[in-house]
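User: Fold this, then the next.

Assistant: Folding the first:
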Amino acid sequence: MPAAHPLADGLRPGGRFDRWQPLPPRYLVADVDGTLIGEVQTATERVVAAVRAAHCAGIAVGFATGRLASGVAALHDQLGLDGPHIVLNGAQVRTGGRALRTWSLRPAQSVAVRDLCARHGLYGEFYLDDGFLVTDVADERVRAHWELVTGPPAGVVDAVDLAATTVVKATIMAFSPDEASFVVSEVTRLGLLAGPATFPLTPAIVYVNVTHPRADKGRALAHAAGHLGCRMSEVIAVGDGLNDLSMLAVAGTAIAMGQAPAEVQQAAHLIVPDVAADGVAHALQAAAGWRRAA
């Protein structure tokens, strides 16, 4: 499948097109919000059909999301994705309802993130294996997020002993570009990874994912591919956000959504239409065609 072949319908060159040297795909992972789904929390019929076509062609399909596994359960059931899946912004790889690998925050790191939120009046969420704790249960700015994505929090983080609690990932929510930049800078100063992301239904919020220094979507994708026995040149990654850059950097075929920022499109080999035009379906259909032609 050399890059010199004509591109499938809906695909166009990205910033790294001239370095695209993939093998026929065996594994495809797609971001969720802004990629598999847009302003509705279920996939369109076209995306469902494209997932089935990829599966029938022999491609394993998974998602790569900042959400908890439970936060994508309905989508998982709708699409019948076989995985492996990347959740919590790369802090965990899952398959068959169990964790294959988890890169949790150390207790001291969780405490440092909580203290950062307290010092600057920031709203934060602390994700456990199942459920999450928050800095403030009365913050009305995030109620839509709870209702649409996560469900209600399990409690307040100050009510637990973080030194004895395993936090897999934290998320600090920023409500302006300046606040988002500040949060990213402060998280980086703590020696942790900051992965900013957005959600189509809550455009006023920037979700800054906070993970262990060795936990991002790229490292998680490499682990998932290894579990399947795939070379990275046999892997396709599709995403739309800055927190997808690490997986686009390591995938043999990196595909950006049409609405993705310029930095993401420059990091991709290929670009598909935006989420409203079912861009991910174009990627899935192309992958199925490449696999069948191998």
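Now the next one, as you asked:
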Amino acid sequence: FSTAFFNNCKFINTKFNKTIFTRADFNGASFFNCNLNRINLSDAKFCVKSIEETVVYGVSAWNLKTCEDSIQSKLVIESTYGLYSDIIAEGRIPMMVDDIELAQFVFYLINHKKMRDAINTMNSRSVLLLGRFNNGGLERLYRIREWLLTRNYLPMIFDFEPLQNQDLVETIVTMGALSKFIIADLSGPFVETELKEISNLYIKPIILFHSDQPNRPNISFKAKNNYVHTIHFDGSEDALMTEIGSKVSEIDSNYNQFVMETNLRSETKYSEGRNS
């Protein structure tokens, strides 16, 4: 069924076990109580109207084209040739997610300790470094990187051009989410925008360093983040490293408090959303 058209079709109580649907078109289709066990949806158009109470274990979803307004609910990530209704009839609740693109990731996260350990390592040890590459900027970032490595951190350097490539910006935002904290040289041409994108989605401790040049970026995102540490960089590399060391120690000392406060903020925001 490669390249087949299933636009606006309704599938109910249907089993597609191991069927190949590469580059097929399911836009507008709906699935209810189906089994998509091990089907191949690579490069398929999957802007479905809804997919609910359906088995998606083993689905190959490389480059799957989905839509944010699709209704997705109770997608089973257990290996079975039966239907959702069959599992419920057995008197048990299966493992489920509400996003077909997250299905494989969540399954591996639950069942593979190494992946869980890798994510925990990222959250506890990785540091995102942002800045510029020219006029000594890259050398400065690498010096910070080497210092972090001696403290058992996992530094990551990103400085992409051009900024118009949204995929690269999204990569920076994603890596920022996985980092324990961020160190940023505000002389980088795109750093302020990158930090704004990050701050619009979540709060992370940030160490900023900058000079007092007239064209220094306005640190507008500080209003959303109480965990921004600023350093005035006067050109002395040794003084900068000393200040960074002091700020990192401060972040480490207060990190448990930071986690508690951000979790409380998230719970409050979630409660307000439910009550609105």
